[in-house]
Design a protein that fits this description.
It contains 5 helices and no strands. By secondary structure, it is mainly α. The chain folds into 2 domains: about 40 residues; about 110 residues, Four Helix Bundle (Hemerythrin (Met), subunit A) (Up-down Bundle), CATH 1.20.120.1490.
Length: about 170
């Protein structure tokens, strides 16, 4: 009888502990949902469908509507071309990866694929340079320091996104 009573007491203690843990988890989930819903500064898509860089040009550099339209046109032209080249790079990389399934692959074949990727990447980089140079010409002389500062911030972030945690 004593053993049965002790067993029931242990079960009640275990159940209370589990209920306390469940309640704590519930409160922590509610807190996280509230935090991300109300206090997190990243709230999804930017207003009016404009990307963050265009908003930064307006806010930090002082672009007017005409300058924003001119930049948007330049950006669209640049990205149309760059997207095509990046798609080609992905396709060639996929073909190169498919070669790993073959037992024997000649070095010259791998080099041909790598050279094709390098040529396209070089074109993307050159087009990027000309795009940013053309974008800079939209600025007034008073806006150039703010534009250059913004671009420095943008370029300093490029490498950080693609680093693995071990390389940081």
């Amino acid at each position: 009888m004593n053993q049965l009573l002790n067993s029931k007491m242990n079960n009640i203690s275990k159940n209370r502990a589990l209920i306390i843990i469940i309640v704590l988890l519930l409160f922590s989930n509610i807190f996280l949902i509230a935090y991300y819903s109300f206090f997190n500064k990243k709230r999804g898509p930017n207003p009016k469908g404009k990307d963050g860089f265009v908003l930064a040009l307006k806010k930090e550099v002082g672009f007017d509507d005409n300058q924003l339209n001119e930049f948007s046109h330049l950006k669209e032209t640049y990205w149309t071309s760059a997207r095509e080249k990046m798609d080609d790079i992905r396709r060639i990389k996929s073909e190169l990866f498919n070669l790993t399934k073959q037992v024997e692959v000649q070095d010259s074949v791998v080099e041909k694929y790598a050279d094709s990727i390098a040529m396209l990447q070089k074109q993307v980089e050159i087009e990027s340079f000309w795009h940013f140079q053309k974008s800079r010409t939209i600025c007034t002389s008073n806006q150039l320091p703010a534009y250059d500062s913004l671009m420095k911030k943008v370029f300093s972030r490029f490498g950080k996104r693609n680093q693995s945690p071990n390389n940081r």
